Amino acid sequence: MGKMTGKVAVVTGAAMGNGFGIAKVLAKHGAKLALLDISEKVFEAAEELKQNGHEAMAVVTDIANMAQVKTAIEEVIETYGQIDTLVNNAGVVRLANFLDMEDSVRDFQFNINIVGTWNVTKAALPHMVQRSQGRIVNLSSVTGTMVADEGETAYATTKAAVLGFTKSLAREVAQHSITVNAVLPGYIHTPMAEQIAQESSPDNPQSVIDGIAGGVPLGRLGKIEEVGELVAFLASNESSYITGTQIVIDGGSTLPETVSVGV
Ligand SMILES: NC(=O)c1ccc[n+]([C@@H]2O[C@H](COP(=O)([O-])OP(=O)(O)OC[C@H]3O[C@@H](n4cnc5c(N)ncnc54)[C@H](O)[C@@H]3O)[C@@H](O)[C@H]2O)c1
């Protein structure tokens, strides 16, 4: 018996990166998985889980589109009959300095990271309220809540918004024994981290990755499976008295009080 045995988990943005890591770990702990992603690669992700002996389904869904989200959640209920855990993981980042940022670039990030999280929660929550149980885990970030770099005004705004959403929703649904928590990753080695490295240094993205690793006390970027294990804890029965809070997973990157010289 795994800590997620008998539970159904919906993970958004599960085709790759953190979402796929979370899906793999939840499946390892016994959950049945519903993978939602805008990319068709989500079918390969579900296939990989099935080949490893897990139960998984995939639905191509743009979380910014409420009609698609409703259809996807209905499909999950038709297939599995319940939703125990929702992991709002799908997110995007586009770097641009504030004065140069087109409103369309801002809206792209707001619509996926904030409105998308809102949409999937709106569609899935009634199925948790009905059974007076559930776990919602939202992927925020250390960006916007604790730290920020240039070019991140839109992204940082969305990640802080996800934390505010987490706290307020946790207050509302506690009466139904549903918990809502946020995970705040630092640098995790995903396609998103590679994209940031590529945008920051098109000629030598690896130097950016190495530079980031050098500034992390644990000396490396995080692994998607490490994020998965934290989410699995927050999704399990063992986390029953934790709600409305945030857990940082960053290898200590937000820790240094003094910037090292010469690095
Ligand atoms: N990688 C990091 O260092 C890091 C750090 C802090 C927070 N996060 C957060 O973790 C989450 C996942 O990030 P990642 O690094 O794995 O990103 P990623 O770009 O590697 O993967 C994101 C996934 O989301 C999917 N997606 C994008 N738009 C979507 C939409 N409209 N509807 C459905 N799916 C969509 C993509 O297809 C992709 O599969 C994000 O919320 C991000 O903000 C990541």
TrEMBL record:
The protein's matches in Pfam families, at most eight in alphabetical order, are given as:
adh_short_C2 (PF13561)
Q: Which UniProt keywords apply?
A: Oxidoreductase
Q: Which residues belong to any copy of the Ketoreductase domain?
A: 7-211
| Record-level Gene Ontology MF annotations | oxidoreductase activity
The EC category is: oxidoreductase
In terms of PANTHER family, this protein maps to: 3-OXOACYL-(ACYL-CARRIER-PROTEIN) REDUCTASE, 3-OXOACYL-[ACYL-CARRIER-PROTEIN] REDUCTASE FABG
UniProt record similarity statement: Belongs to the short-chain dehydrogenases/reductases (SDR) family.
Instruction: List the protein's name.
Output: SDR family oxidoreductase UcpA
List the source organism.
Answer: Mesobacillus zeae
